[in-house]
Amino acid sequence: MDDRETGRVLIAGGGIAGLAMRRALRRRGLPSLTLERRGEPADAGLAINLPSNAVQALGQLGLGEALRRVGSPVRRREYRTESGRLLFAVDETAFWGEEARPHCLRRADLLRLLTLDLDPGDIRRACEVAAVRQGPHGVTAECGDGRVETGRLLVGADGVHSRVRRSVLGGRAPDAAMLAPAS
Ligand SMILES: Cc1cc2nc3c(=O)[nH]c(=O)nc-3n(C[C@H](O)[C@H](O)[C@H](O)COP(=O)(O)OP(=O)(O)OC[C@H]3O[C@@H](n4cnc5c(N)ncnc54)[C@H](O)[C@@H]3O)c2cc1C
User: Is residue 180 part of a domain?
Assistant: First the structure.
């Protein structure tokens, strides 16, 4: 039985969205293979603020407890003018409750959490998806190193400059939004 018959899902991109998708599929017992361009997860030491919806989504992925052990909860949010005058403040704990209040952590820690207890065999690193093709029985992903992977469907989670989007939509693919240069 090949992977199309087993219903394997291909995921292009192993960033936040791709790893969250991989985890969600795993929790439902659905096989997947993630194809990630980078050889190692990027760790520029950057932090990320997770708003409450992200915190709740991580809870649904079974990571609520693990999340509380890294980074810091955001207890209060303030909006100020350039000169420092307070415009508006939110008591995040009172607003969302302790379980769902926003949380700040290193990006590297978030990526590590998303892979917690998952089989490293279902992610292939240093594998750039060059093109995808849809057929009557599934989808084929062609990787830059010449390998070809097949699956029942493919999730494009390859970021804002998505190769998957361009491969599927061609010239109809919308560009990423750009800020107009300051005049
Ligand atoms: C400076 C900055 C600060 C931000 N701060 C916050 C914040 O505080 N809170 C917040 O919620 N959001 C924040 N964001 C937004 C957040 O980073 C993005 O929404 C999020 O990273 C999107 O995740 P993603 O998985 O869709 O894409 P990405 O994080 O871009 O991941 C895409 C992945 O796909 C891989 N990839 C790309 N092309 C291919 C290919 N052809 N084949 C295989 N793999 C490929 C990449 O290597 C990458 O691992 C910030 C963004 C920026 C730029």
Answer: no
Closest atom of ligand 1 relative to the 12 alpha carbon:
43
Residue 26 φ/ψ, nearest 5 degrees: -60, -40
pLDDT in tens, 127-157: 999 999 999 889 999 999 999 999 999 999 9
CATH number for the domain that contains residue 7: 3.50.50.60
Which ligand 1 atom lies nearest to the CA of residue 48? 8
- Show Cβ contacts of residue 124 under 8 Å, excluding neighbours closer than 6 positions: 33, 34, 35, 36
Domain that holds residue 123: 3-41+117-172
**Residue nearest ligand 1's atom 50 by CA:** 48
Please compute Rg for the chain using Cα positions. 19
In a domain, 182, yes or no: no
Q: Which of 94, 114, 134 is the C-terminal boundary of a domain?
A: 114
pTM of the predicted structure, to 2 decimals: 0.91
